[in-house]
Structures
1.
Amino acid sequence: MILTAQKALPLLAPGASVILNASIVVSRGFAAWSVCSATKTAVRSFARTWSADLNGRNIGVNAVSPGVIDTPGYRLIGLDETELTAYFAQTANTAPIGRNGVPSDVAKVVSFLASDDSRFITGSEIFVDGGIAQI
């Protein structure tokens, strides 16, 4: 992420957006997620500090923090279909909204941040988590 940003930032025009992928593990303590939590905390910090670093360039830098998003990657972690179904049922029950996310939930937030509609938002973290990290 750092190397990509270093190469991309000189190419970005005023009004551009940088959108970083953080995670809800930054806000809550989840067992067995310490390394992910630490690295995503750094991502969140970059959103804040890069916003300050880019002061005057009119480039927004924000972080998106997804919760449990049902993506094909979950089918690669070694759980059988019964275990995966149980996992998704359990995580849906922890979300105040009562379900897990789907990729389009995150894509819509990223599209908003990439649009001119978000031109007055920078240094922020937007949670796309059904309320897990909020309540």
2.
Amino acid sequence: MAIQYGGPKANVIPEGYTDSDFAGCKAIARSTYGYLFTVVGGAVSWKSKRASIVTLSILEAEFTGLIEGNKEAL
């Protein structure tokens, strides 16, 4: 197993993806968020973490994941 970079149509522009799970941990009502960044088809940065705050809606959970992904992108 290895991360492979390149290919016939390698895209050198970084791509980022974020997602979250609203209140996925029922015991403490915390959401989980994650992000993934790829360059030339291979992952270069990723994270999955339980949020340190209790979010009150799905929208707030998604924004939490988006904010963390933006911090990493910068």
